Structure formats: structure tokens, C-alpha cells
Amino acid sequence: MALYTTLTSAAQALNVHSRCIDVASNNLANLNNPAYSKQVAYVTTVGSVQTPDGAQSLGIQIGAIQHLRDDMLDTRIMDGKMDLASLKAQQFYYKQLELDLGESIDRTKDNGTTSMSPDAVSGASGLMASMSSMFNAFSEVASAPNEQTKRSQMLSKTAVLTNRFHAIDQRLDSLGDGINQRISNDVTSVTNILDQLATTNLQISTIEAVNPGSALDLRDLRQKALEDLAGYMDFEVAYTDDTVPQMILTAQASTGSSVTMLRGRDVAGTLTYDETAHTFAFSGTTLSLAGGSLHGSQQVLTTTLVSLSSSLDTLAANLVTEINAAYNPAQTDPTLNFFDATALTSGTITLQSGLTASNFRPGSSTNAGADDLVKAMADLKSTNISGLGNTTFGKYLSNTIASVGGTIAKTNSAYDDIQKSQNSYERQRDNYGGVSINEEVTNLMTAQMAFQANARVVNIISEMLKDLIGMVG
Amino acid sequence: METRISTNTFTNNLKQRISDLSIQQYGLLQQASTNQRIEYPSDDPAAFGHVSLLRAEKSDVAQYNRNVDQADAIVNNVYNTLRELNDRTLRAQELAEASSPGFNDNDLDPYAKEVKEILEQSVSLLNSKYLGNFLFAGTKLELTGNAFSVSRSVLTGEIVSVAYAGAKSSDVDYSEQTFTIAEATDIRPYTSGDTNEQFLTFLRHLISLRDAINAKDTTTIRSLKQNLIGDSNNIVGELGAIGAKQATIEVAQSQNKERFLNIDRLVSSETDADLAQTIVALTQAQSAYQAALQTGTMVMNTTLLNYLR
Which one, of A346, A352, A353, A347, lies nearest residue A316 by Cα? Predict the structure, then answer.
């Protein structure tokens, strides 16, 4: 009878609209979940059937519940995260490196007159200021070679310089150790994320074996895990052509080939880090990373930090060699040197053991006014040094500092550029698949009204059936 | 143009905007309070590199100035002393002339006594010190005895011979003390070993003149007169050379002063922030910040839920 058909349809409609309310309320519940994509329930008709009374509708059903996700946007955002994470890591370490160098400008200390002491007029601090101070101290002693006070000051200022070298060297070493530790922690995080992905893939394949494409929340979770992984390293994702597609996650090996890290529910190996060589390997195959914080950290360790340490070592070595050559031209007795000739790095540069203000020799002769040796040392300040690429000590150090600054500025600029486009992509994704309170409340109200209407229909038909039965009985 | 705006788009955008404006305000505030547009190398690498070299040069110039002041003092002392010595030379020439035959046949004792005095004064002048350092001993600034030591007669106490104990150009390790007083400008404020030995010759000429006058040895007196003229020419020549050093010092002082000011100007042009522009930008950022906060809260607070009963 048609009444029963209508009753059935109305009952079906109650289920459908109830499900729609579920979807809307789930969307609202996940309003602040950045990994969540809005779900939409598509209501379709079941179909119709031919009856003696004509075509009868078979009612409505939920055709599909889909989430609004765009694979292309997801991929672009993931790629952006890889680049950003690498640059962010570099930014973070470079800032520390810049502070470790200790070079800065404070103009409040810059003012003065020529009558002030040379150390006071520039207001500078850092290695550059210490080096300048040492050379000026040589010049000061040359003008009064027999004054013990000036010799003592000269040795003190030289000690300040060597101490600054040591301090910077230690800080750079410490930074390197810190980066290595952070990398080790990040490698553990990568391992955990791979395990998480494997588990999620298993859960998805279990649920979707019965109903393909239905594990929407798990797919959101998987995408979040992939984006988390992108924060650590770069990789490629592909899917098999199976009924329930399997995820294949690969990284690039140093040889250029692909290394499979994850296939479906199986993690294919372990990511490891060699602290000495600063390289990554997956199950023994060396990787070539191009994104993520691991890449950024690796870049800092293998390029800028190494380059800066090397430059400082070169500067220290040339200071030692050139000043010793000026102070002890014969070089037959190393104990007569100014600096210890065996300590040629920024971490080891030091005054010759036993050198004091009393036994310091300003001149070749023992005459009190002889100053040819210390004058030659002072003149090195404006001499082009072949070991520094035919530039002066000051210019070499200034170029080194500017180079570090340039690297940092370039990284900051690249980060800002990528961040802008990343913000646009994320906004686009949010606009495509994000939850809007107004939309969901409207959907809720619509579903609620439909539910109420169909409940009324059920009520009416129930009354009608009662009347019919009453008539029979 | 956006076709759909989710709820989180508003909040995320607002957060981003507020964050950007806060960072901008902080940077401008730093600039305004320090009057600097660069503090660290990454702020402007090229400018920072240039400024660090300029600041080093500024302290170099201050050092040159200390050196030049010291050199100036030494040179002035040497000059004044040599002028006194030259006066003695001229007087000794006059005395030699007065002691010549045919000029004055009176008792020559007073002349011999005056030459003796001139000798004592000259030795004293040549043993002058500045800040405890001999002016006329070359690099032997400190000596156990004097730069010009004398031997005296046991009977009369008069000087019979003089010797020079300072640095001589014939010494194996001979050098002259050199001061750097400006960029690529060195000066040797003390007299050379050769010059000092010329002064020794002058002192010996005075001894000989005194003895010749006492002995009324007119031939020797006549020959010594020529020697004394030569001594005076040497001293005048040295005074000329010192005059040139003083001119060099003056130029160096002026150069240093100008360079110091120029460096300050250059550093200022590289590092100083334009305060007016900074304040304008800061005001704009603050206005934008306030507007973002105000409008953001206005929009965020209003949804359909506000109108449902």
C-alpha cells in the first residue's frame, strides 16, 4: 500500500537528515582543527520503481560523504613546508651564529674626539675591535718603547684578542654540537612519524576494504602526518592503482635514485645520521636531502659554520705567522716569538709562553728607544697579506662578517618570499575546505527542519493507519 | 577574488596581520630609540662591513693623534734646545773673532772663561731630557751616564774631553725611532746619530778654542773660527730639517682631525635612521595595528548564532 511506502520513505528521510545533522555537527566540532577538511553529505534519491499506480520514488539516501580536499593544493603546501622548514632551521641557527660572532653596532658609544683613547672612540666591541686595539697598542709602544705600562697594555690587549678568538671558537663548536643534537632528535621524530603513517595506512585500508574512500578523518590525519614529515625532510608520495590505493613514500638517494621509506603499512627501514660526516642514510643508503629542517641543519653545519670556522682559523694563522715574522725575523729560536707558532687556529692562538712586558723586545737592539720590531708589527695592520688573498687583516675579517650577514639576509629574504606564497596556498585551502560557522549552522537548521517535517509526515501517516485499523476493528 | 571564506580564514589572517604589524612596530621602535637602521651584520651586510672598517679606522686616527702629539712635543723640545745651542755657536764665533790677532790685544782671559761657560752650557743642553729620555742620544734614550759625557782636569776641573755615548750610525743594529702620525706618514722626531756626532765635534771645537785662547794660539783660533761657522751651519741645517718635521706634524694633525670628522659623517650616513621617516612609518604601523584589532574583533564576534533564538 502507498501509505506504507510513504512511511518507509519518511523513515529513510529521518535517517538521512539525522546523518546530515551528524556531518554538520562534526564539522562544527572540528572548527579549530587545522588538519580537518570540511565534510559534505550528498543526498541523492534511491531511485524509483514502476507500480500499478505509476512510478513510485524509493526515497532518499546519503549518496556519499566526502571531504573537500584538493590534492594539488595539498602537494603544493607540503612542498612549501619542506622549503620553509629548511629555511626556518637555517634562520634559527644563523641568528645564533650572528650573536656568537659578537659583532654589532651601538652608535650611542661612537661619539668622541681625537683626544679620546683609540679604544673608546669607535665604541666597537667584538673581534674587529680587539684586533684594531692590538695593532694600535703596537703603534703606542713604538712611540714609547721603554714604557713598561704601554708594553703591559699591549700584551693585555693581545690577550683580549686571543680570548675573543677562543670564545668564538667555543661558541661555534657548541652551536655545532647543538645542531647535531637537534638533528638526532629530529631523526627520532621522523621515525615516529613514519610509524604513525604506517599505522594510519593500515587503519585506512582496513576501513576502506569495505567502503572505499570512507575513512575521511583518517585521511585528514594522514595528510597532517605527511605535512609534519615535510617539516623534517623532503620526499615524494605516490599511490598504487589498487582498489584501496597504497601509499609509497620515497626519498632521493645521493646517487639520484629513489629510496622507498614507506609502502602502505610497512616502514622499509630506519633513518640514521652520521654526526661526523653530517650525512643521512636510510637503511644504509645515503640520502640527498633538499628540504625540511634536517636539510637546513645540514646546510648550516656543512657550509656556513665550516666556512666561518675556516675563515677565523685562517685569520688566526696569518696573524700568528706574520706578527712572528715581524717580531722574530730570524725565526731560529721559536721561544723568541710573539705568538706560539704551533697554535695556529682560532681555538688555540695564544701569546708565546714566557713573554712579559719586561722581556718584550720592541727593537732589534737593546737600546731603550729602538722600536723597529714593534713598528713592523704595527705596520702589518695596513699591509696586504698574501695568505688572506692579498687583503689586510681588517678587510678580511670585515668581509668574513659581511659574508655571514649576507647569508643570513639571503635566507631571511627567501623565507619571507616562500612564506608569502605559502600563506596564500593555505588560505586557498582553508577557503576551499575549511569550516564556516555560518554555513554549518545553516546546514544544521535545514537538516533540522527537514527532520521535523519528515517526523510530522510519519506522525500523520501513523494517525491515518490508526484510523484505518479502527475502521476495520 | 575569494569565492568562499571559512571561519578560520578570518582568525588566521588576523593573527598573521597582527603578528606582521607587531614585528614591524618593534623594528621601527628599535630604530627610533637607537637612531640606527643597522645593528647586526644581517641588517645590511655591505653597510655593516663598511662601517666596521670605518670604526677601526677611527680608532687608528685617534692612535695617530696620540703619536703625533708625542712627536710634536719631542720635536718642539729638540727645536728649542738647538736654537739655544745655535746661539751658543754664534757667541763662540764672536769670541773667536775677538781673540784673533789684530782685533784685540787685551788680556784674553775673559774670552777663554766665556768659552768655558759656553762649553758647559752646550754640554748641559745636549744632555737635555724629555720625559726622562735623552733628546740627543738616538735610540739610547736611557743611559747609565749622560749622552755626552765629559772628562775633567783634576787640577782645574775644566772639561778636557767629551765623548758621545748615544746611538751612532756606524752601530751594527743602528735604527731611529719612528712614529706613525697619520695614514702612510711616519716621522723620526729625534736627531740622527750622525747629527749627534756633529754636535760632539762642536763641543770638541769649543774645548780647542778655549785652550787656543788660553795659549794665545792665533793660528788655531783662526782655523777654529771656520770650524765654528761650519758647526753653526750644521745646527741651522738641522733646525731647518726640524722645521720641516713640524710642518709635517701640523699637516698630520689637521689631516687626522678632518679624517676623524669625515669618518663620523660616513658612519652616520650608513647607520643612522631617518628619524622623521621612522616616526611616520611607526605611526602608520600603529594605526594599521589598531584598525586590525578593532575590525578583527568586530567581524569575528558576529556569526549566525548571534541571531538564532
Answer: A346
3-state SS assignment for residue A126: coil
ipTM of the complex: 0.89
For residue A60, give the 3-state DSSP assignment: strand
Asked if A435 has any chain B CB less than 8 Å from its own CB, the reply is yes
What is the predicted pLDDT for the residue at A87? 97
Who has greater pLDDT, A347 or B1?
A: A347
**Sole residue written with cell 566540532:** A29
Task: Provide the CB-side half-sphere exposure for B49 (13 A, CA).
Answer: 15
The pLDDT, as a whole number, for residue B216 is 86
Q: Cell numbers of B17, please?
A: 596581520
Which residues does B247 contact at the CB level (< 8 Å), separation at least 6? Answer: none
Q: Judged by CB atoms within 8 Å, which residues 75-134 of A form the interface with B?
A: 94-95, 98, 101, 103-108, 110-119, 121-124, 128-129, 131-133
Q: What is the pLDDT of residues B68-82, one digit of tens each?
A: 999 999 999 999 999
What is the structure's pLDDT at A473? 62
| Nearest CB partner across the interface for B2, out of A397, A423, A431 | A431
By Cβ distance, the residue of A132, A404, A405 closest to B60 is A132
SS (H, E, C) B109-167: HHHHHHHHHHHHHHHHHHCCEECCEECCCCCCCCCCCCCEEEEECCCCCCEEEEEECCC
- pTM of this prediction? 0.88
CA atoms within 13 A of residue A437's CA, in its CB half-sphere = 17
Decide if A375 and B180 are in contact by the 8 Å CB cutoff: yes
CB–CB of B42 and A34 under 8 A?
no
Select from A108, A382, A398 the Cβ nearest to the Cβ of B52: A398
The answer to whether the CB of A374 falls within 8 A of the CB of A141 is yes
